[in-house]
């Protein structure tokens, strides 16, 4: 008779929707697939966090740090990025069409294949610079400035 083995079930993605998480510390956290829809994340720290496939629909991210975060394939639609630090973040294939960007730091961010409204693109291109340390892509090129 063979050895019976089974894998532990995959952990369910956390759901932080509609919560107030002002100043929360998520540095270097594995947040793949986590839901933060309509969540107040003002001053939250996501530095270096893995947010691949996460949903931040309508999230308030004023003055939050997403520096070096992996946001590939994340849903950022209708989120508010005001004073947000996105330096060196990878946003490749994220959905951010109705996202509001104001006074954001994007040096070295990678926006490859991110759909953006014309007004958001104009705002981002005005301050775009640097090269992403993970993908090696130039921020201005990824935005199509």
Describe the structure in your own words.
Helices cover 10% and strands 4% of the residues. It has helices spanning 118-127, 139-143, and strands at residues 80-82, 100-102. The radius of gyration is 16 Å and the shape is globular.
Annotate the secondary structure layout.
Elements: E1 80-82, E2 100-102, H1 118-127, H2 139-143
Parallel strand pairs: 1-2
Shape: globular
Strand arrangement, major sheet:
1-2
Average pLDDT taken over every residue: 92
* Total number of strands: 2
How far apart, in Å, are the first and last alpha carbons?
64 Å
Major beta-sheet overview: 2 strands, parallel
Low-pLDDT segments, ≥5 res: 1-11
Order of helices and strands: EEHH
**How many whole angstroms does the radius of gyration measure?**
16 Å
Instruction: Give the oligomer, counting copies of the same chain as homo and different chains as hetero.
Output: single chain
Fraction of residues in helices? 10-25%
Structural class: little secondary structure
What is the tally of helical segments?
Answer: 2
Strand content: under 5%
């Amino acid at each position: 008779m063979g050895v019976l083995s089974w894998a532990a079930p995959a952990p369910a993605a956390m759901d932080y929707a509609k919560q107030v998480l002002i100043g929360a510390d998520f540095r270097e956290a594995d947040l793949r697939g986590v839901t933060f829809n309509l969540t107040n994340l003002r001053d939250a720290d996501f530095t270096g966090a893995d947010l691949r496939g996460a949903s931040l629909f309508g999230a308030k991210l004023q003055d939050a740090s997403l520096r070096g975060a992996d946001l590939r394939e994340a849903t950022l639609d209708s989120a508010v990025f005001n004073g947000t630090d996105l330096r060196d973040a990878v946003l490749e294939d994220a959905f951010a069409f109705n996202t509001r960007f104001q006074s954001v730091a994007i040096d070295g961010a990678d926006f490859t294949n991110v759909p953006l409204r014309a007004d958001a693109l104009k705002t981002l291109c005005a301050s775009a610079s640097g090269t992403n340390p993970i993908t090696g892509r130039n921020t201005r090129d990824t935005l199509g400035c």
